[in-house]
């Protein structure tokens, strides 16, 4: 009677033994190993971030965030309403971002343009002068 390698190496009462985690094929048995075909086994997790699953995940995240903010919306209760709100959000979001950017630039100005507009002489005319003052704030000496 042959005992499998898994049964030899795993305690049945241990925390790491689970029937679903053991594969039905031996790990080293790959019949395409020496052939020119590259066989890459991918489990079902690759479908979680592709196609309609990704769209549903984004829609579900949006509905959860909207519900936390106080909107009466639920994906399973009213899916068409939720999808309409999500599509509205996707249209309005770039407009809001550009509007916020414009208001910030109006209020504070564009720092990159200001640095480029400064004359080169002012940018290169920098010095480190060490100045000493007494406790009253009077000038004592300076080192160049």
Give a topology summary.
Layout: H1 5-9, H2 51-68, H3 79-108, H4 111-117, H5 120-124, E1 130-133, E2 139-143
Antiparallel strand pairs: 1-2
Briefly, what is this?
This protein has 144 residues and is mainly α. It has helices at residues 5-9, 51-68, 79-108, 111-117, 120-124, and strands spanning 130-133, 139-143.
Would you mind describing this structure in some detail?
The chain is built from 5 helices and 2 strands. The protein has 144 residues and is mostly helical. The protein has one domain (5-108). It has a two-stranded antiparallel ribbon. A hairpin with a 5-residue loop joins β1 and β2 (139-143). The mean pLDDT is 75.
Into how many domains do the coordinates divide?
1
Strands, total number: 2
Regions with little confidence, pLDDT below 50 for 5+ residues: none
- What's the SSE pattern? HHHHHEE
Helix content: 40-55%
Task: Give average pLDDT, whole number.
Answer: 75
Shape label? elongated
Task: For the structure shown, list the relevant keywords.
45% helix, 144 residues, 2 strands, mainly alpha, 6% strand
